[in-house]
Design brief:
This protein has helices at about 20-35, 55-65, 75, 90-95, 100-110, 140-145; strands spanning about 10-15, 40-50, 70, 115-125, 130-135. With about 150 residues, it is an alpha/beta fold. The radius of gyration is 15 Å and the shape is globular.
Length: about 150
Amino acid sequence: MNEAAPPCLVIGLGCQRGCPVSVLEGLIEVSLLEHRLTLADICALASIDLKSSESGLLDLAERLALPLAFFSAEELAAFEVQLSHRSQIAFESTGCHGVAESAALAMASRLSGSPARLVIERRNSSRATFALAAAAPSERALHSQDMKTP
């Protein structure tokens, strides 16, 4: 009998221009610790394509040895209905209402091929935002788990 694969947890990040990697690491560390998660639970990072040359994000992905994907504002807009917070400021500067949550949802969905859900809603520091998403289990996976005996 095959065990279901653990959920793929994805960190979505938004940041101000020039945000240092230390700020991103601190926000991630605190957010994961509060939810009793570790970096070992994370399979990828994601952000908006406007941040694709941000050295803090690129350095973070390298330090953590995790893939980092970037999505366009149009791709992120598809996840707007799932956002816990819609920021007009984010929309004016990026074209989407929430970078961290949207990016996390987009990447979790891409990796799993399934709908995604927020595990940790938007958290922010003075220079960055963080969110965590996971692929929602499919009906088939839920049914197979129900059939297992303890």
